[in-house]
Design a protein that fits this description.
Strand order of the largest sheet: 1-2-3-4-5
Helix content: 25-40%
Number of strands: 5
Structural class: alpha+beta
Order of helices and strands: HEEEEHEH
Number of helices: 3
Largest sheet: 5 strands, antiparallel
Length: 118
């Protein structure tokens, strides 16, 4: 196995572990709304794909975060979604209004997971 292949394998493993941890956290915390059925993270490209099965929705909702950035200052961390689209037009517009370009504070409990995103 070459160094590049090993690095790609390790990054893929890290991305998969991160996706599992985030999906478990979200599904535990927000089970009354629905569940995250799939999550894929590409830390190299800084992209995220999410599939949600929400209560009251007949079909899953897909969200593609095309670019995100992270910032850490001492004990505080933020996530900024720089570009994203959803399988529902209204959700894409809502993300543009309330999420895209805004810093989201990462809860301290999730700080360990945050280290994997970089």
């Amino acid at each position: 196995m070459t160094t590049g292949t090993l690095h790609t394998f390790l990054r893929g493993s890290k991305d998969a572990a991160l996706a599992l941890a985030v999906r478990t956290f979200v599904n535990t915390r927000f089970s009354r709304i629905g569940q995250m059925t799939e999550l894929s993270v590409d830390t190299k490209r800084r992209t995220i794909r999410v599939w949600l099965a929400l209560k009251g929705e007949d079909e899953p909702i897909a969200i593609h975060v095309k670019k995100y950035s992270l910032e850490r200052r001492s004990t505080r961390a933020t996530l900024t979604i720089e570009d994203a689209v959803a399988s529902r037009e209204w959700l894409t517009e809502a993300m543009k209004e309330f999420v895209i370009g805004r810093r989201l504070i990462i809860p301290e409990r999730a700080a360990a997971i945050l280290k994997l995103l970089t």
